[in-house]
């Protein structure tokens, strides 16, 4: 995914990291146990619902607190994902208590396991990064923009099957990615990717009714593969494509 250098899921029963540094931002969740680490000659901790952000090229170490192990998930983000001027703020306060942010980052990890859901992961990461910038820089978030949402919807419709990335949409419409996602959700009650998925299911439904063979429907309607189509088709319409194809099925 653009902007993500590496994803790490790990359990360490006893390993202790020595002092080291990364060239990326380290966005850390600790799912079990707790981590004690030193950053800029200060002792810090990561545990529970705390979101930890460690800046690039600032040395730190890490070990399980109280001699116990830990389980963690990490997104290593390319340096340009956050402004360099925020390095000092993240050194001073690397631990963020923000349940909403924690849930979004956790969802990014879950969605990255499924290639077809990477656009949703991209949207959540964009909003998460905006939230990090606001927390670290104490800047207000610009209000949602209905015109940006409507323009984005038109762009999504024009690229329904091939799709368009959030980065490309942002470049074309001259709005920040997170601003587009927030504006769209405020205007339509769903994220851009959720809208695209719902419209692709609608297209798949029409293709099935028109007699297209099921193996070709997924690609013709823009889904990653057949399981991706089946999962979302059933979630939205309450039945599988094959059942829907049956003449005996009841179609709303």
Automatic annotation (TrEMBL):
PROSITE patterns given in the database record:
HTH_ARAC_FAMILY_1, HTH_ARAC_FAMILY_2
Q: Which GO terms describe its molecular function?
A: DNA-binding transcription factor activity; sequence-specific DNA binding
What's in the keyword line of the UniProt record? Activator, DNA-binding, Transcription, Transcription regulation
For this protein, the record's SMART domains field holds: HTH_ARAC
Residue ranges occupied by any HTH araC/xylS-type domain in the UniProt entry: 150-247
Tell me one Pfam family matched here.
Answer: AraC_binding
Q: Which PANTHER family match?
A: HTH-TYPE TRANSCRIPTIONAL ACTIVATOR RHAS-RELATED, TRANSCRIPTIONAL REGULATORY PROTEIN
Protein name listed in UniProt: AraC family transcriptional regulator
Give the source species. Actinoplanes cyaneus
Give the organism's phylogenetic lineage: Bacteria, Bacillati, Actinomycetota, Actinomycetes, Micromonosporales
């Amino acid at each position: 995914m653009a902007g993500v250098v590496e994803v790490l899921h790990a359990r360490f029963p006893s390993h202790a990291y020595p002092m080291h540094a990364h060239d990326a931002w380290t966005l850390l969740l600790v799912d079990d146990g707790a981590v004690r680490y030193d950053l800029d000659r200060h002792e810090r901790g990561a545990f529970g619902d705390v979101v930890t952000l460690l800046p690039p090229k600032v040395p730190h170490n890490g070990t399980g607190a109280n001699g116990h192990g830990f389980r963690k998930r990490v997104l290593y983000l390319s340096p340009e994902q956050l402004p360099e001027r925020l390095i000092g703020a993240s050194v001073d306060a690397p631990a963020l208590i923000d349940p909403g942010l924690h849930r979004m980052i956790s969802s990014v990890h879950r969605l990255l396991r499924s290639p077809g859901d990477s656009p949703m992961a991209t949207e959540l990461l964009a909003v998460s990064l905006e939230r990090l910038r606001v927390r670290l820089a104490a800047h207000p978030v610009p209000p949602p923009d209905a015109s940006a949402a409507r323009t984005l919807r038109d762009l999504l419709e024009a690229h329904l099957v091939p799709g368009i990335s959030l980065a490309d949409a942002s470049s074309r419409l001259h709005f920040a990615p997170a601003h587009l996602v927030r504006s769209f959700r405020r205007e339509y009650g769903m994220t851009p990717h959720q809208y695209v998925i719902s419209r692709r299911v609608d297209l798949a439904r029409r293709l099935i009714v028109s007699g297209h063979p099921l193996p070709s429907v997924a690609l013709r309607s823009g889904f990653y593969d057949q399981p991706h189509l089946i999962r979302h088709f059933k979630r939205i319409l309450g039945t599988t494509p094959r059942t829907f194809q049956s003449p005996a099925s009841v179609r709303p």
